[in-house]
Amino acid sequence: MLLNLLLGPDPALLGTDAMSASPFSLLPAASTNAQELDNIYVAVTLICALSFVLLIGAQVYFMVKYKKPAEGHRKTSPITHSGKLEFWWSFIPTLILIALFVWGETLYMKMVTPPSDAVNIRVTGQKWFWTVEYPDVPGAILTDELIVPKDVPVRLTLTSNDVIHSFYVPVFRQKKDAVPGRYSNLWFQATTVGTYPLFCTEYCGDQHSTMIGKVHVVERAEFDARLAEAAKLEPGEGESMADFGARVFDRGGCAACHSIDGSAKTGPTLKGKYGAQEVLSDGSTVTIDDNYIRESILEPNAKVVQGFTPQMPSFAGRFDDRAITGLIEYIKSLK
Amino acid sequence: MSQQPAHHDNNHGEEPNFYRAKRGIMSWLFTVDHKRLGVMYLASVLLFFLVAGILAIFLRTELLTPAADYVSASTYNQLFTLHGAIMVFLFIIPATPGALGNIFLPLMLGAKDVAFPRLNLLSFWVYSVAAVMLLCTLLLGGLDTGWTFYTPYSTSTGTAAGLAALGVFVAGFSSILTGLNFVVTVHRMRAPGQTWDRLPLFVWAIYATAVIQILATPVLAITVLLVFIERFLGIGIFDPAMGGDPVLFQHFFWFYSHPAVYIMILPGFGIISEMITVHSRKHIFGYKAIALSSVAIAVISFVVWGHHLFVSGQSEVAGIVFSFLTFAVAVPTAIKVFSWVATLYGGSIVYNTPMWYALMFLWTFTIGGLTGVYLAVIAVDVHLHDTYFVVAHFHYVMMGGLVVAFIGGLFHWWPKITGRFYNEALGKLSALLVFIGFNVTFGTQFFLGHQGMPRRYFAYLPEYEAMHRISTYGSWILAAGLFCALFGLLAAFSKNAKKAGNNPWNAMSLEWQTQSPPIEHNFHETPHVTGSPYDFPEIDKSGGVHH
Question: Which of A17, A99, A255, B426 holds its CA 20 to 30 A away from the CA of B86?
Answer without folding.
Answer: B426
